Amino acid sequence: MRDNTRRRDRWYPPVVIAVLLAILAVGTINNLVRNPQPRLVADGIPGMVARSGDSSLSSSDPKYDDLYRHALADLDGLTLPNGATLAGWDGPWRYVWPRDASFVAVARCAIGQYDEALRVLSFLESVRPTSGRWEARYTETGGRVNDGRPKQLDGSGWVLWATWFCHAGGKYWDLVRESADQIVNELGPNGLPGASSDYWERPETQVTLGTVAPLLTGLRAAVRIATDQQHPAEAVRWRAAAETLSKATDRVFGPDYPRTPPVATSFVAPGVEPLGLNGGADAIVTVLGPPFAPARPVVTTAIDDAHAVLTQPNGGVTPGEVWRADGVSWTPQTALFALSAAARGDRATADTLLSWLDKHRTSTGALPEKVNRDLEPAGEAPLAWTAALVVLADSALQNPLPIP
Prior knowledge:
By secondary structure, this protein is mostly helical. The chain has helices spanning 2-34, 65-78, 98-110, 114-127, 154-165, 173-186, 209-228, 232-253, 297-310, 331-343, 347-359, 384-398; strands at 263-264, 276-277, 329-330, 370-371, 377-378. The longest helix is centred in the first third of the chain and has 33 residues, at 2-34.
């Protein structure tokens, strides 16, 4: 009997390991089948060439000059004469997202290109909703895109931030008032807005950090605008709403600030912290810190933790912990972490991420939407949001960006 037991001790562990490896292999194969390797849709804007020899187009480090100039050239190409800033050049990207356009306007203002920024803001002014939420996206002539995509509340926050950053609150006061009041009207008894689609571009059944974070930034920006423009009643109202939303965000999402609030999954005795689940880490946690909000240690920790969790084997970042597990990195979220690091004084991390983005551009120098598992550019190229974030990250490495 003892001899048989010893024999089982010798062969049982390898069998268990083999079974587990087989299960893992089957799961990996199924995942790869469900999430095929993405490929490049477009290599760049036809005929677009980065400007050279212009000393005003210098980056924070000579090694980024080509990356920086290509990003600016692509923003030039994606911004039409009427100020419509396309998210991408082709197909389903050839629309104007208020979020992407707001980042482009901020990037322009960060480097002193105010005329170009005001063209972008003027287009947003022309399509602003006089009541209700912003559309998810607009056509290049300002029309609504009838594809069933729900309206997105986060647009109100992004546009307010861009208007404040560019010192354009007086010029676009109606836009500011309507967007800020819309945020106030959306806040419920718990201090948070209801569910809304956000940058993940999908219907949501509960409020997400992707909505809350930009709304906080937008309300703080609106308070600054109202104060500067001598609208005290609006300043008081919006400041109260910002404080309510801020406290609710800390209470419901803190201290880890996941994508969705934690949900209790088991009953425990009173006074004992319940076990819970949440939507996992989300790259939008970066918007709770500089340059979108004043730095706080608890938020810095959450940003660093999220960066560690969301970093993919190929070196880039995925949008969220519960995003599809395909090993693909998305350049806007990678660039968001680069901007966050630069704005918080973490130059080492910012350099690492900017170098990664620089290395994985297309053959024409454009920044793609994604980088696949084989380290190849994938999706649309160029992508306006990524290009704008690269310009902002580089600017933050040179001079501190203003924080509302």
